Amino acid sequence: MIRLLAIDLDGTLLTSEKTIHPQDKAAIQAASQLGVTILLATGRPISGIRDYFEQLDIPEQPYAIGNNGCLTLATKDWSILDYHSVPAEQLSSLYALLEDFPDLNLVLFTPHANYALGKYLNAAAIRDAQVESSILYHSRLDDFLALQLPVLVPIFMGETERLTAFQKRYEANLSQHYHPVRSLDHAFEILPKGVNKGSTVLALAHKLQIEPEQIMAIGDGNNDTELLTVAGLGIAMGNATAAIQSLADYTTTTNDQAGVAKAIERFILSQ
């Protein structure tokens, strides 16, 4: 019996046009009415989650997870119930990695705004903020540190090929102290060690007295790896990466073909 359904947003619940398919919305509402806890679990910040949650029209659902597990949110008022962050004293060493990659930005995601470090704001950082409706400031490191804000996740952003070169050079070293993940072509995320969607969903499920085998998770990208792994039933989208499809228990149709609805109908509404 599935008691908790964790759903990724981009590439999963959201179509390629960044909309919610009507069939997906109807299936999610039906599952919610059966008493299943519906949990949006995404790499997006609060600003990129709230509107989509409200479109689903499931006000009885109390939680959402943002920033790839760094934020646990109360949907009633969008307050922060719990968060994980990267210590401020570690930011200087991360910023120093831009020395040979001046065209990249190090974007610091705080609970309510993003701060981009680097010589100039690049197109990737600007576009990312627009997609997620985030407030974005161009800042110097010293000026940011003076604000004394928690950094949920630092993200290196830039053009795909340059970011790939950066990742190849530094990923092994960063993995010793962080949980790095390439969730998007333009974004290389440096999550706190041990933090991911899966770990945060498990912590919330424990609080709700829900066992891992009662969790169903749906995702498509690298940042959904741990989410699908910890769930009793892991569902990959038809448009998911080959790696995600290989570790999933079942592959549904694509995000443009109401794949979320089809999975819900097969594994939740049928029960």
UniProtKB/TrEMBL annotation:
SUPFAM superfamilies: HAD-like (SSF56784)
A Pfam family of this chain: Hydrolase_3
Alphabetized UniProt keyword annotations: Hydrolase
InterPro entries in UniProt: Cof, HAD-like_sf, HAD-SF_hydro_IIB, HAD_sf
GO CC annotation terms, alphabetical: cytosol
Molecular function as annotated in GO: magnesium ion binding; phosphatase activity
Full protein name: Cof-type HAD-IIB family hydrolase
Lineage: Bacteria, Bacillati, Bacillota, Bacilli, Lactobacillales
